[in-house]
Design a protein that fits this description.
about 270 residues, 9-stranded parallel β-sheet
Length: about 270
């Protein structure tokens, strides 16, 4: 357990917590709880997150991570919970990044981001954008709910992934609350095509055999279910308040073509 740590400018290895085994889906039970991490990444400005994560069934909760130029959370893993964290003033020196960042996998799924507070996630780079929660390069299968996003460039950014649920979140003064794109149908098609790195990673876990086939049954036929299309994303019951009128940049035509659902996302007064 990593608990009640208060510090700044520590080495990345001091703040990386993992546990468990993905091949056998054996839970780690590790907990990163109640830490205060701020004003870090003073020398190594990028890819030196407040907390690095990995493994299977670990918990990251009640941490306060603030005032850093790039990332608060960064890593990959499965069936983990990120809850009741305060993330503020992250990403101000970077572009195309996220305070919570993960990507490049179909396998690393089943994770939950809930009841967190993301505040002042903005870049100082003119014309740039950083994301509070960044699901990059077709990362899939996250549940993101009950979070508050305040004063951010972008709230939830889904870069071509599938099987996400984004619901019951509050977006206040967020330029773009939710973004989804179809990069797997274009420049990143090689990653999701048969024989590509996503399928090879799944094969390394024997995903069509237990325990993976029973724990993630919807993965068994993924190569025959529109593998490069950002399907089955559900975005619902969110509220937003902002100067700009749009909740998402996904058009109704694209949402229908991708089999994604947007419903009951309501504009409210600030």
């Amino acid at each position: 357990m990593l608990r009640s740590l208060v510090g700044s400018e520590m080495c990345i290895r001091d703040r990386y917590m993992t546990g468990g085994d993905l091949s056998s889906l054996t839970g780690g039970g590790s907990r990163c709880v109640g830490n205060t991490i701020q004003q870090y990444s003073r020398w190594y400005r990028t890819y030196n997150p407040g907390v690095g994560f990995g493994g299977f069934r670990n918990v990251y909760s009640h941490n306060s991570i603030a005032d850093a130029p790039h990332q608060a959370f960064c890593g990959s893993g499965n069936d983990m919970v990120f809850e009741h964290n305060l993330v503020s003033q992250i990403g101000f020196e970077t572009d195309d990044s996220g305070s919570f960042y993960t990507g490049y996998s179909w396998a690393h799924r089943g994770n939950v981001i809930r009841y967190n507070y993301f505040e002042d996630i903005r870049t100082d780079i003119e014309g740039g954008s950083v994301q509070a929660v960044y699901q990059d390069r077709q990362m899939s299968g996250y549940a993101i709910y009950g979070n508050t996003f305040l004063n951010c460039d972008c709230g939830v950014y889904i870069g071509g992934g599938r099987d996400h649920e984004v619901f019951n979140n509050s977006f206040v003064r967020v330029d773009l609350p939710v973004h989804i794109d179809n990069r797997g149908m274009g420049p990143h098609r090689a990653s999701c095509s048969p024989g590509g790195p996503f399928e090879l990673e799944l094969m390394s876990y024997n995903y069509q055999q237990p325990p993976w086939s029973t724990h993630y049954p919807f993965l068994v036929g993924i190569m025959h279910e529109h593998p490069c299309v950002p399907v089955n994303n559900r975005v619902y019951n969110n509220t937003f308040c902002q100067p700009r009128p749009n909740f998402t940049d996904v058009t109704p035509v694209d949402a229908a073509a991708w089999m994604d659902v947007f419903e009951q996302n309501v504009a409210v007064g600030c």
